Amino acid sequence: MSATPSASGAPSPLPIPTVEKLSAADQFRSAVSQPTVAAFCAGGVAGAVSRTVVSPLERLKILYQVQSSGREAYKLSVGKALAKMWREEGWRGFMAGNGTNCIRIVPYSAVQFGSYNFYKRNIFERHPGDSLTPLSRLTCGGLAGITSVTFTYPLDIVRTRLSIQTASFAELGERPRKMPGMWETLVKMYRTEGGFPALYRGIVPTVAGVAPYVGLNFMVYEHVRQYLTLDGEQNPSAVRKLLAGAISGAVAQTCTYPFDVLRRRFQINTMSGMGYQYKGIFDAVRVIVTEEGIRGLYKGIVPNLLKVAPSMASSWLSYEVCRDFLVGLKPEETKLLQ
């Protein structure tokens, strides 16, 4: 294409292509389709779905964990304990603490998946799309776990308090007619239990357990997912994704479960009537093993393992479905106007 002569005889410059301005809707679609943003949003959805699905078993696990030696209120099989919870508290008992748990888990899961994607793309991948080694996946997942728990820990400790306050532990005394809510519990802890540090009580064993747990979860899931992807497929089927999520959750939970018990014990360490006042992590381990045996470090693992399969399977599946949907919202390439 030649230049068009101007009135003076000199050739005029060629027209400069201009970029079409994106509409507000396309700008939004472009923003949420970015890999890290999509992972962040999908992680929040995955957390809410997975926790609601297994809320009764999640609460029962906590009741088992916080019950020390000599307490018999929930020294029952999983079926009988769930039946007791239903008789005494009904459907609300199954969902006790789940609202707070979802408020906690949405940002927790969002930050976890989003930060994993961020660390993976910006630190561990030399080139976009590179496959990470198992050690890199483990490290990346551990960093994501530490990041997420640091941001959301006060909500976790309040969720633990809300989960046990309606349970029939005789040592806690008569239950009040109106139970305090999330914000009221948070403020009360801050005012009566030592200020800001009270909201992070138990974070050391939490981080010690969360980092390897999240690392193992991501590492095992991506490895099993890759193994279950058949030749010629880009992604495994939904059923195989569910299986990969169940396996990864079971492996990670079993390996790191004692840290979860310690976390729960420290979160209610200042509550009267529970039968323990630990001085530190090593003191807690010593007292638990002495009074309750090695099994004391694995209290609640049965309902925990029962919830792992549906929890992690639904989490990973809903995460991938939501993430792929958001990434697919990316608008077409910007058109050039001549």
UniProtKB/TrEMBL annotation:
A Gene Ontology BP annotation from the UniProt entry: transmembrane transport
Principal localisation: mitochondrion
SUPFAM superfamilies noted in UniProt: Mitochondrial carrier
Tagged with keyword Calcium: yes
Domain of life: Eukaryota
Pfam annotation, one family: Mito_carr
Localization per record: Mitochondrion inner membrane
Cellular component GO terms, alphabetical: mitochondrial inner membrane
Keywords recorded for this protein, A-Z: Calcium, Membrane, Metal-binding, Mitochondrion, Mitochondrion inner membrane, Repeat, Transmembrane, Transmembrane helix, Transport
Entry membrane topology: Multi-pass membrane protein
Coiled coil: none
Gene3D superfamilies the UniProt entry points to: Mitochondrial carrier domain
InterPro entries reported in the protein's UniProt record: MCP, MCP_dom_sf, MCP_transmembrane
Molecular functions per Gene Ontology: metal ion binding
Solcar repeats mapped onto the chain: 34-122, 132-227, 236-325
Keyword hit for Nucleotide-binding: no
Family: Belongs to the mitochondrial carrier (TC 2.A.29) family.
Function noted in UniProt: Mitochondrial transporter that mediates uptake of thiamine pyrophosphate (ThPP) into mitochondria.
The protein, known as: Mitochondrial thiamine pyrophosphate carrier 1
Organism: Neurospora hispaniola
